């Protein structure tokens, strides 16, 4: 299979790209592709919020069998302390870009009668998120989008999977007003296991909604 991983330069996307490259052709996308090299993964530089980059992605990567949407950014703090630019970056990266990229590839998948769209949402999609209101709204948005899309495309044999991790030890929290206890939160590899579980199901089975939680959870304010 050909797998496109968006957000493959770090964290959960990087772990997915690494694991999937053992058995599949993996194309990894992100802005800072210089910081990574993985055997079996070809990287393409793409800022999902830059129209010309996304156009080039569409030209260079014809419809993959699986797309993992793991691009994301998060800014935390009291909402009035989050700037408009930061809100815009979260909405564009976490919500609009997966929706738009789906728009491009979905017709090819439907025509081919196969394809798998995997969205990395978050447990925040279903919770109340003081200090993360905008981020949580974006994650709730992508959850809602994926739920509707699943019903819309299921009869065309295109699969949709929503993975909702709890706190995971990645770079996502570099802009946070709290820190996570790395020993207690999930590892990117734990989330990758859920992705592999969904990817490896037979064609008549869709694993739609997976929540991945650590047994304990700790943030420090
Ligand atoms: N960590 C957690 O606790 C957690 C929990 C639940 C859900 N999630 C979700 O998991 C996904 C992956 O996040 P992560 O935790 O792995 O964080 P991460 O290590 O910061 O990875 C984020 C990835 O997104 C890419 N990215 C960010 N902005 C981009 C842009 N404009 N264009 C293209 N790529 C962009 C980054 O690459 P470049 O900087 O190279 O562009 C990086 O590869 C996100 O959707 C996040 O919301 C994370």
Explained architecture:
37% of the residues lie in helices and 19% in strands. Helix 1 links the parallel strand 1 (2-6) and strand 2. It is α/β, with parallel strands linked by helices. The model has no long low-confidence stretch (mean pLDDT 96). It has a single domain, classed as NAD(P)-binding Rossmann-like Domain (Rossmann fold, 3-Layer(aba) Sandwich). The strands form two sheets. A seven-stranded parallel β-sheet has the order 3-2-1-4-5-6-8, sandwiched between helices. The protein has a two-stranded antiparallel sheet with strand order 7-9. NADP nicotinamide-adenine-dinucleotide phosphate binds at residues 7-13, 30-32, 46-49, 70-73, 93-94, 120, 122, 165, 167-168, 170-172.
Lateral arrangement of strands in the main beta sheet: 3-2-1-4-5-6-8
Q: How would you describe the shape?
A: globular
At CATH level 2, the architecture is 3-Layer(aba) Sandwich
Which structural class fits the helix and strand makeup? alpha/beta
Order of helices and strands: EHEEHEHEHEEHEE
Summary tags:
alpha/beta; binds NADP nicotinamide-adenine-dinucleotide phosphate; two-stranded antiparallel ribbon; 221 residues; Rossmann fold
Strand and helix layout:
Blueprint: E1 2-6, H1 11-20, E2 25-30, E3 41-45, H2 51-60, E4 66-69, H3 84-112, E5 115-120, H4 133-153, E6 158-165, E7 179-180, H5 188-199, E8 209-212, E9 219-220
Parallel strand pairs: 1-2, 1-4, 2-3, 4-5, 5-6, 6-8
Antiparallel strand pairs: 7-9
The structure holds NADP nicotinamide-adenine-dinucleotide phosphate.
